Amino acid sequence: MSTLRLGDLAPDFKAETTNGPIQFHQWLGDSWGVLFSHPADFTPVCTTELGTAAKYHPEFTKRGTKIIALSVDGLTSHLEWIKDINETQNTIVNFPIIADQSKEIAVLYDMIHPNANDKFTVRSVFVIGADKNIKLILTYPASTGRNFDEILRVVDSLQLTATYNVATPANWKEGEDVVIVPSIPNCDIAAKFPKGHRQVKPYLRITPQPNKL
Prior knowledge:
Radius of gyration: 19 Å
Strand order of the largest sheet: 2-1-5-4-3-6-7
Order of helices and strands: EEHEHEHEHEEHEEHEE
Strand content: 15-25%
CATH topology of the largest domain: Glutaredoxin
Number of helices: 6
Number of strands: 11
Structural class: alpha+beta
Shape: elongated
Oligomer: single chain
CATH superfamily of the largest domain: Glutaredoxin
CATH architecture of the largest domain: 3-Layer(aba) Sandwich
Helix content: 25-40%
């Protein structure tokens, strides 16, 4: 199987989850999605990650983005693990966790990296647009927990740049100035960016975030 790349159609699949059976594309509907995998149930770093994801769930919802996790353990194990997550992380996990004991979905999304571990998934993150195409791929080793502030930041950037002819600079956060893409000629900037802009270099033109008052 070829490795998934940015712009590819996110593979569809059927799965059992802690919130019931799903058909992935149908479950996404018109929403954006974040699919993230875990090496196994009842592991310490994953427990903190799923607790953090639950706390951030309202922020993803504000952005029209659904979140869904995956582990190669079974549904019964997931449901027992959720009790621990809720208890230790002081939260309620209310998004689905996929049961992928067959590793079919893990293989479909190239989540198992044999040089790291040939049995368990690495910490993969896929951000999927409303068009069902893959917009972002992140891969963390099993030892390193994910930064959900960064995942939210990336969703903000991807949704902004999908609508406007801008890019976001290093360390950008929602509400900060953005970069006008090089394909926009200077003569079109006033019409497209009525808030104004400043030219640092001919190729580096800065403007306020266009969808903010």
